[in-house]
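Annual report, structural modelling task.

Input specification for the adenosine monophosphate complex:
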Amino acid sequence: MTATRVLVLNSGSSSVKYQLLDMSDGSRLAVGLVERIGEETSRLKHSPLAAGGESRETTGPIADHDAALKAVAGELSRDGLGLDSPELAAIGHRVVHGGKLFTQPTVVDDAVLAEIERLIPVAPLHNPANLTGIRTARALRPDLPQVAVFDTAFHTTMPEAAARYAIDVETADRHRVRRYGFHGTSHAYVSRETARLLGRAPEDVNVIVLHLGNGASASAVERGRCVDTSMGLTPLEGLVMGTRSGDVDPAVIFHLSRVGGMSTDEIDTLLNTKSGLVGLCGDNDMREIRRRIDEGAEAPEGSERAQDAARAQLAFDIYIHRLRKYIGAYYAVLGRVDAVVFTAGVGENAAPVREAAIAGLESLGLAVDGGLNAVRSAEPRLISPEGARVAVAVVPTDEELEIANQTYALVRNGNTSNGYTSNGNS
Ligand code: AMP
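The model returned the following structure:
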């Protein structure tokens, strides 16, 4: 029997998201989520898609990732999809930070784990949880290849001119301060799917990818290779996000420290969790922001509702202003652009965001057709007018499928050597 199944694990600090895929046809056999690990009210939601069964939900204490993964394995077993199945080819793990060294998906061994651990100082929120997930899965199925798929890998092709900050080189190198970029799995998948939508090879097209979810990033992809992206050392740089500020003058931090008396941790929390859309208007969900704007249109001038709408409108305008700046910047970086593509929660669903981001850019060959933009669909689609010089597209992202594809491509021929050698230079 050929092993064609891949389990994809995305381990956060208190959660594990998972999907089991059959790579013979890319179908999903099961999806699920364990939340609030380590609390009394942990929750496991499991949907056995292949079995066509009802979703099952259990609540109760799940102490740690080990217990979480065992609970997931139990649910999969109930559907005849257990981790002990000979049909399982590998487990693919999302790993947020792979530094400079991990440019490809990599089969995990002790040296790889040590290297991911070495990167914790530049990804303190994510890499420890990712590591726990890998270690737990490895203990459960030591014989099975575990593959790390890095959020940063797609961006390792960025030239030094884009990847370096203009700060003292020696200091930067000593502390591994450079622009790594994130959401790489999504940018890779979406840029390739955009080429497919255009009926062209990825090597033939230049694409600006706008991944607009709760976290948001833009990338400039030249002939299938990333040449710039908006996130940097951490996922804080760049676009306005749900709760993150994106770009600010670094001196804002000194000012808040010296004049505002805030600690480094307080400023970190401010910029990562109390800024962006939520900091500007109290909501980080674009649906809610649009609702407030639309409802305010009918409210009497000066009323509470009108003021509330004005706050939401300002947040929307700042979000769009930053987005347009990046579209312009990446247009200049690429020189020739074949497509601008929207993806992730906001990009796939928020027609007003797409319309406002592209409005008035006809001289760049960019326009949105109102009718096409209004269509709701889960399919990749063009929203630019017919015959437009530059395509504008909506392409739903699928990071789990991309992780599964990359994992399976690595292990399908029984090749589990990772080709990795540590040179201590990540
Ligand atoms: P993601 O991180 O890709 O899951 O995106 C989550 C975000 O997508 C939410 O916080 C919302 O802001 C946004 N979103 C999801 N559905 C819609 C929708 N129908 N309209 C506008 N925004 C949406």
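Residues 421-426 have pLDDT under 50 and may be disordered.
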